[in-house]
Amino acid sequence: MKQMILSTLFLGLLILINTHSNAQDKNKMYRIAKIKVDASQLDKYTFALKEQMNAAIKLESGVLSYTAVADKKDPTLITILEVYANLDAYQSHILTPHFKKYKETVKDMVLSLELTDVDLVSAATK
Amino acid sequence: MKQMILSTLFLGLLILINTHSNAQDKNKMYRIAKIKVDASQLDKYTFALKEQMNAAIKLESGVLSYTAVADKKDPTLITILEVYANLDAYQSHILTPHFKKYKETVKDMVLSLELTDVDLVSAATK
């Protein structure tokens, strides 16, 4: 009897954890940023971008992942896949000193910026 | 003296591991695929895509990661960030039965496909 109660409690806990984790995944915010950088300032831009990305990942619990890639044929075309825990995490992020510093630093380096909100279809990783 | 030799060997080993790992990273192949799907077949397309992604990640050591996202404003616009261990891994991948099955299944579902080879600028993840 005691074992049955324990098993039921354990099962309940598993369902609770799973539901909670699915709800967290559902709230995640995915965004693609496409950035055209002034070619003569590409190195400076890349430095500022990395500094911002690393600070946000280190300091903000709600900033989950950044992947920045550059077109092989035109390295001034940069695409960033951004993942935040939820909309609140994103809204806090854009108020942080490191994000504000980045925006100020790159304002004359970025020739165009296109933001696309996206939903995750599927992710598979080793 | 014995300690010094051991320390030197250990340092040498660390440098070797680090060089090897950097070389592996340098060979990685990153690609962005942009796909426009026929709206009336979106569910079928998504099913086939997930099946291909999961099979490749499970069966092929050189297929490292897929992240597929859909534009919130137009879910028929799908972007996939693909990461392979190297060019050979990619070339083997497109000859696998699961990839060939995917291409055959989706050939009338995909309205356009744009492939862009990219270089990693930086990645930061929790």
Short précis:
2 copies of one chain form a homodimer. Chain A is α+β, with helices and mostly antiparallel strands.
Q: Mind explaining what this structure looks like?
A:
The structure is a homodimer of 126-residue chains. With 126 residues, chain A is an alpha+beta fold. Helices cover 48% and strands 33% of the residues of chain A. The radius of gyration of chain A is 20 Å and the shape is elongated. In chain A, a hairpin with a 5-residue loop joins strand 2 and strand 3. The longest helix of chain A is centred in the first third of the chain and has 26 residues, at 2-27. Chain A binds chain B through residues 30, 32, 46, 49-50, 53-54, 56-57, 63-73, 75, 78-79, 81, 116-126, and chain B through 30, 32, 46, 49-50, 53-54, 56-57, 63-73, 75, 78-79, 81, 116-126.
Low-confidence stretches of chain A: none
Total E-strand runs of chain A: 4
Oligomer: homodimer
Number of helices of chain A: 4
Query: How many distinct folded domains of chain A?
Result: 1
CATH fold-level assignment of chain A: Alpha-Beta Plaits
Q: What is the average of the pLDDT values of chain A?
A: 92
Strand order of the largest sheet of chain A: 2-3-1-4
Most extensive chain-chain interface: A-B, 35 and 35 residues
Give the fraction of residues assigned to helices of chain A: 40-55%
Look at the helices and sheets of chain A and give the structural class. alpha+beta
The end-to-end distance of chain A, rounded to whole angstroms, is: 42 Å
Query: What radius of gyration of chain A results from the CA coordinates?
Result: 20 Å
Strand content of chain A: 25-35%
The CATH class of chain A: Alpha Beta
> SSE order of chain A, as H and E?
HEHEEHHE
